[in-house]
Amino acid sequence: MAEHSGSVAFFDIGNTLASVRVSADGTDIESLIAYPDIPPILSALHEKGVRLGILSDRGTIPEERVNAALDRAGLLEKFDQQLVLYGPKNSTLLFEQAAAAAQNAAAQNAGARHRPRLLFVGEDATERSFARLADFLVAPHPSLALTVLGRLAPLRYLRIRVPPAGASGTDWRSLLREQPLVPLYGAVRRAAPPSVEVYAVADAATALKLDDLGFPVDRLGVEDEPLTTDLYLLRDDRQNDSGFGSPAGNAFDLFSDDGSARRVLASSPEGLFVAIPAGRSVESYHFSGARHGHNLKLQATPALLDGRADGAAPSAATPTVAPHDADTLAALDPRLTLAERNLVTENITAQRMSREVERYTGVRPASDTVTIRSRHIHHPDNASAVRTLLADVTSAGSGLLTVRAHQFVHEGRSYDNVEATLAGSGLDGVVLVTAHMDSTGARQPGYRAQVDPAPGADDDGSGVAGVLCAVRAMSALTAEVGVARREIRFVFFNAEEHGLVGSHAYARDQAQLGTDIVAVLQMDMIGYDVLQPREFELHAGFTPSASVQARSVQLAKLIAATASQVAPSLPAPQMYPGSTAGGDPAEERSDHYSFQLHGYRACLVSEDFFIGPGSSAPNPEPNPNYHLPADRTINADYARDIARAVTAAAWISATR
Fold first, then answer.
1. Is the dihedral of CA 443, 446, 447, 449 positive or negative?
2. Which whole-number Å values give the CA distances from 12 to 66, 382, 483, 507, in the listed order?
3. 8 Å CB contact between 237 and 290
4. pLDDT band at 321, cuts 50/70/90?
5. Is domain 323-654 in CATH 3.40.630.10, yes or no?
6. Which residues form the Peptidase M28 domain (predicted)?
7. Cβ atoms of 193 and 243 closer than 8 Å
8. pLDDT for 418-446, tens place per residue?
9. Hey, where are the domains in the chain?
C-alpha cells in the first residue's frame, strides 16, 4: 500500500500552483501557467498515494473557464474531478464541503468509511487558519506538502547562519536547496567578515540536519507557528536614528501593552522579525518615525537559493533569466530624436499629471459613477481604483495594449495588480514602467482604514499619474514613430504599503516563468518639492549582488541621461549608491527591490526623501504628510519632469 494512500491534498491555484492573469472585465482567465516546480511535486504526491484536489476562489469567472485554463496548462488531469471545488475561503465552509467530498470519494473508490487525512496547501495564512479550524493539516508552500503529511516534526521559522567559510562561496546554496525548506529572506552584510543569514520555514527535523551540516540554526518562535502566521520584517527607523544605548525605539511601546511581545521572534540590524497571526494586519504596527518602506512581508522566495538574488548562476532546475550584463544599457545611445522628445513632452504635462492625481484622490470624480476617497487595501475604494485603472489604461492605449489583472491573495483577501502590455517587434527582453496604486493614512492616530480617507496624492498617486501619462506617451510614440523593439509593460502594484506584497507576487511569477526583464523603472513618491533648489533621487543599491547593483546603476544613469533632454529644469539626480562610501537607504524599501531580489535590473525614482548620498549632500525634503490623510496635493510641474525622464529612459531601453 502506498505510504499516504489515505490522504487528500487540496491546493489553491493562484500564487501556489500557477501564475494567473484575468481579463480586464474579470470574466475569464487569459493566462494560467504552472510554476515549473509544481508538476514534479504533484507527481511525487501521487506516487505516495495522495489524491489531489483544488480549493480556489474563482470570483466572477465561470467554473468552466477556470477548468479550461487548468486544462491548457496541463494541470487539470492531475486532479480528481470530484475534489475540485471553487468558492471563497473566508470561513470554514468550503473546507467542510471539501472534507465531505473527500470522504464520499474515498467511500466510492475503496469503501472506506473513515475520514481521509486532509491537507490544504496555500500561501495565505488566513486561509490556512480556516482550514485548520476544519481539521485540515496545512502547508504554506507546495514543497512542504510531503513534509507535513509525513508528520515527522512540526514546522518552525528558522534563522540559518552561513559560516564565514561558506559566505564567501556558493556551496551553501546547493546544501540548502537539497533540504525541504522554503526560503523567505536573506540578509547579506558585506562588512568584514562577510555574513549571510537566511530566514526560512522548515520542519524541526530539517533544522537538525542543518545543524549536522555545520549551519548555526536559530529556532524562532514556537512549533507550527508558520502554519497560521506571516513573518514580517519591521524596520525601526527611530531606533536606527537614535543609535546604540538610546531607548528611543518602538519595540517596547508597541509590543508590551497588549501581550504581543511573543510575536517578536528576533531582532537584527535589519529590524524586528515579527510573526503576525491570521486575522491581524501589519497595519497595526506603524512605527513612530517610520520612513518609506518600513515593513516587508517575507514570502516564499526560491531566488534566494537559486543564486539570482546575489548574482550567481541559477540552478539547473530553475528557468534561466538572461541578466544582460552591465554594459548593455551603457552601450545604448541615450539621445532622443526631436520627434521622440516632442511626443514625450506633449503627452506628459503638468495639467495631465494634476488631473490624474485628483481623480485617484477624490478631489474630482474618477468617472461618472466613481469617486475614490482611499486606495487603502482595506477600503472598498481600492477595488474601484483597480477597475478605474483597468479602464484608464485601456482607453489611453488607443487599442494598442493588452490589459489584464494579475491576482494574488493577502490577509485572506484577493487583490489585483494591473498590467498593460505594449507588444514589441521581436527583440528579446521586457521593459517595465511601474508604480504602486495603494495608499494609507496609518500615521494618523486612530486611523480607521476601512472608512477613513487615504488620498495618497504623493504616495503614490504621483507615480500612478506618471505611469498613466507614460502609457499615453508611448502609445503616441508607437503610432507615430514605430513599434518598440522590446515589449513594454505598465504595471500598477497593489498592497505595497503592506510590505511590497503585490510586486513580490508579480516578480516571483516572472522569475519562475523565466521572463527576460531588461529594466524596471519604479516611480514611488515623485510629487513633493517645495524648497529650492530642486532635487530628485535615483536608487539602484542592492547589497547582496554587485552584478545586480551594477546593472541597476546603469539603468539609473540612463534615466539621468534622458532627463536633461526632456526635463532640462531638473538638476542632476542624487544617485544611490553614490561615489562616496555608504549604501542605499532605499534598498529593500520600494517595489524595485522585488525585482532586484530575482536578479533583475531595477531602479527607484523618487523625490528628495532620503539622507545623502554622502555627508556633503543637502538635507532631504521629506513630505510632512507622508502616510497621513493630509497627503492631498503634488507639485505637478516637478512630477511631470520626473515622469518625462522615466518615460524617455524606458523608451530608449525598449527601442535601441
1. positive
2. 13, 24, 39, 19
3. yes
4. very low
5. yes
6. 417-641
7. no
8. 999 999 998 899 999 999 999 999 999 99
9. 7-150, 155-306, 323-654
